[in-house]
Amino acid sequence: MSTHFDPKGRAVVVEAELIGPARTIAVKMALDTGATLTSVRPRFLRAAGYDPARADRLVTMRSATGEALVPEIPVSRFEVLDRTQTRFPIIAHELPRGVTVDGLLGLDFFRGLVLTVDFAAGRVSLRPPRAWWQFWR
Amino acid sequence: MGEPYLTMAEIEKRYPNEWVLIEKPRKQRKPLKVLGGHVIFHTTDRDDLDRRLVDLPREVGDIAVFFMGDPAPDEVWMLNA
Prior knowledge:
Mean pLDDT of chain A: 94
Helix content of chain A: under 10%
Largest sheet of chain A: 6 strands, mixed, barrel
Strand content of chain A: over 45%
Number of strands of chain A: 10
Largest interface: A-B, 40 and 34 residues
Shape of chain B: globular
Number of helices of chain A: 2
Mean pLDDT of chain B: 92
Radius of gyration of chain A: 16 Å
Structural class of chain A: mainly beta
Strand order of the largest sheet of chain A: 2-3-8-4-7-6
Number of strands of chain B: 4
Distance between the termini of chain A: 18 Å
Largest sheet of chain B: 4 strands, antiparallel
Low-confidence stretches of chain A: none
Strand order of the largest sheet of chain B: 1-3-2-4
Shape of chain A: globular
Oligomer: heterodimer
Structural class of chain B: alpha+beta
Number of helices of chain B: 2
Order of helices and strands of chain B: EHEEHE
Strand content of chain B: 35-45%
């Protein structure tokens, strides 16, 4: 199953669902293969019921603009591109004003899977690799 | 909940270039897509949206938060920079 995206948009944007102790939040996220981890704006994590200020783990985030210690929250369930991850670590990271997505889908969500981004058709999919016996089907 | 149910097309038409906070979003699975819901807050200012998210009453259930439009045409994103 693949998901539609706007191939002329500023980024490859997909809808995601973040499940927290308070509520479930659907947000738009940009695929970012330049990001090691997946991140969501801190206020969205708070609205879902997580408290980034009480995170057990802080990670060093390095970017072109510098480095910062950011909280990492294990989110109980996170769903995007037809894949669901449980106890998935998401960092609380603010995005600049004017950016109309609320999170970045990083490499950690894609590892071990096959990510296909078709800019001609505006479709993106994430699926498990085919097993050897599936190649001659 | 006093707000009427609107489809995403109706929400996009009614709140162009605004952030909308949608309560009880109706979703399609595989692929995941919000089909509509009840708009309980809308604003052109992301800071307003952030304040609303922080003060969200406990009784508000599941939500979806989307921007209904495109960024400014002369703008580019370098999100990991």
